[in-house]
Prior knowledge:
The longest helix is centred in the last third of the chain and has 12 residues, at 154-165. The chain has a six-stranded mixed beta sheet, covered by helices on one side. Helix 5 (154-165) packs antiparallel against helix 7 (190-198). It is built from seven helices and 14 strands. It has a single domain, classed as Metallo-beta-lactamase, Chain A (4-Layer Sandwich). By secondary structure, it is an alpha/beta fold.
Amino acid sequence: MEIKIEPMGATQTNCYIVTIENKDxxxxxxxxxxxxxxxxxxxxxxxxxxxxxxxxxxxxxxxxEKLKIPLYCPKGDSFMLEKCPLGQATPPSTPDYEIKGDExxxxxxxxxxxxxxxxxxxxxxxxxxxxxWFSGDFLFRQSIGRWDFPFSDGKEMIKSLEKAMRxxxxxxxxxxxxxxxxxxxxxRAIPFWIxxxxxxx
Length: 201
């Protein structure tokens, strides 16, 4: 598995191209991502969104149309692709497949698992491919996603952090912003974050 990374836009949102057996998966194509993606894919098969915020989905529709490939998005966040809850002029897009909670997918013989970790958004998810997590805005290096946005939910964030604590296997974590980390490294800090969230709800 080869992973290409490019931070996009003012929010420096990581766009990923994951190549497995000469097939390219595009994860979270944000603002200005289209040109970089088009220059670096050879056999694109799908666009995958971790959640619906503008800086992760901005280039969805352009790439769907140019590459003629399906778009996958968590069902709980599909409404954000039509109208941005943060007031940004996001180009609207429509998912071809809506992911319902935890769901396993087979895309062109690539095994993918969506893991639902609500809180930052209703549908916020981790995309698991082999021993790698693409964690979107759920989990960062030494931090977690915000839970004070419209449609965020601190109580759901606590449940999601507790769910992440119960996972025994380690994964390399590629977040939506910033540098990579590991699940085990972040599990050491999760109790602190649970308490931080609890104090605000």
